[in-house]
Structures are given as C-alpha cells and as structure tokens.
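Z., the sequence and structure:
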Amino acid sequence: MRPIYTFLLVAMMMAPSGMAQSTPDQKPATPEKTASASDSSDATGPTAFVQVLGNNHNMGTVVTYDFNLGYKWTSHVSTDIGLPLYTTRTFFPIVAGDYRYTTIIGAPYIDVRYDTKHNGTNITSILTGAAGFNMIKTYSNGRMTVDWFNHFDRNYQILNYDVVFTPFLNFGAGTGTVDRQVMPRPYELARPYETLGYIGNGEVGGAFTIKKFYRLEGSAYGLAPMGPQKVYSRIVSPDSLIGGDGHHNRYWDEFFETGGQLVNTYGGGPSRIARDNGYGMYLEVTRFKKLHNFSVELGYTRSVHYDYGSAFFMLRYNFTSILRNLTTGE
C-alpha cells in the first residue's frame, strides 16, 4: 500500500507532465464538497440539506436519515447542526428465526467548518461534536464525542477532454467514531458499530469527474485506535439473546458491547478491537433535469480487517437555495 500512498500524495502536489494540467481556479468537484449545504455558493446565509444513506451486507442493514441546518458566516467559515435517525434490519431478534427492525435517533451533532485554498490545493477542516447519551436508547457510544477531520484535494484537467482528475487525502482523530454527515465518507457512514476511545482515521484516493456531473472515485482507508477501546454493535441489540459468530475480529457481530466495564472515561478493552482498514469504489451522479439540487451516490466498501463487503447508497437534496429565497423574499 505504501507505493500507492506515495504516488497519490505526490500527484496532489504537482501536475502530471503531458497528461494533465492544474486547474487551481476551478471549484473543487469532490463529493465531499457538495455534501454540505454550506457549499451551495460563495454567498453567506442559511444552509440546509436532507440525506438518506445506508450500508447493506450479509449481517444486516443500517440506514441513516439526516436533517441538517447551518449558516455560512463568511467565505471560509460555516456551521451546521443536525439530528440523524437510524433504521436497522438485523438477523438477531429476541426470538430466533426472524428479522428485527429498529428505528431510533442517533447522536445530535454540531460542527464548525473552515474552507480555504493554498497554491491550488483545496483545504477543509471540520470540528464536530456529537452529543451521545444513553447508548441503549440512542445509536451512539453513550458519550460526548469530538472528531477533527481534515481534507485536501487538487484538480487536474485531463488533456482537452471534459474530465477532471482529483487526488485527495483525508485524515483526522477523535474520542470515538463519528458518523460525520457534513463531507461524509462512505466507509464511516452507517457502519454496523460505534467505538469509544481515542482513534485516528485516514483515507487516500482519487476521482475522475466527467462533464461535471458524473464522478467515479476509489480510495483506501484505515482506522487506528490508540489506548483502551469499547465497541458497541448496531446489529446486536442490548436485549438480544443471540448473536453472530464474531469471525474475523467482528466483535460487534457477536456482542452488543465489547471491551468490558469502563475503567475510566474512555477505558475498556485492547485497542485492536476497534482497528479497521479497507477500500471502496463509488459513483456519484448530480445531473437530474428537474432536481438540480439532488444527487445520488452508489458504491461498494470492502473491510479487509473484518472481511466483509457492503453495498453503499446515498441520496441527498440541498435546500439551501430554497431556504435563502424564503428568507430574502425573492
């Protein structure tokens, strides 16, 4: 994997000779940049979006509905607040031989976002706080979780074709895993578990954007826990009498809680129980004749560490232009 990381990092900092030329003045075409309502324009004002996303795999299905309101204060600074709602379908009901469906709220969140550009490289930094409380009554790790996420990308025009190549790098750290709805990443959204404990995350990849409306992306990711960890399943409920086999380090497939009783604020089991790495391929489409603010993303994520694959989808509608027209009376 190291040669791949090295290649993408170098490609992001300098234009490939002959094949492409840098387009530093072009707006970033990444799906992360369109994921937040804060990015609908350079103008300041209120923002809003609604999105539905989920993962389906052979151990269950997790679908998230997110409702987000925000405000863009300057061309660089914006804030968002939101409330996710989760629906799960699992194979581990109270009575064996049936599916179990559960719908429950997630952890409300607030984030502060900073966007800028340096030497043609687009940079975004997001600080998110998720107010987790009772882990049995909400899909959360039961604690207040803080996550710091950083994104870097640069656009390169491919010859004279209407194609833009965008290598990107994401990295961050938190006091547990967070389902970040602003600039969301497929590998971390609608995952079948939550973690509690200091954890770093990273992702490197590249994307081809064709005619501005079609984007094909590939990336590799990793989660690096540090210190004691706890893992809470989203597919094995607290009152379930059965669970999976837990093969390939999938503790969350066997038990609702892994890591033992808390010995301090973030204490628990060994760090390895929250480790993960994998890769994914995704296609995003933003061109719809009568739905200009609507986008669809489909893809596949493969967890190498846990040895399972999942189908991913995301539907998003940006209400920012509608909201601003209502507030300005236009």
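Residues 213 and 288 are 9 Å apart (CA to CA). The domain at 2-328 is CATH 2.40.160.40 (Porin).

Let me know what you think.
H.
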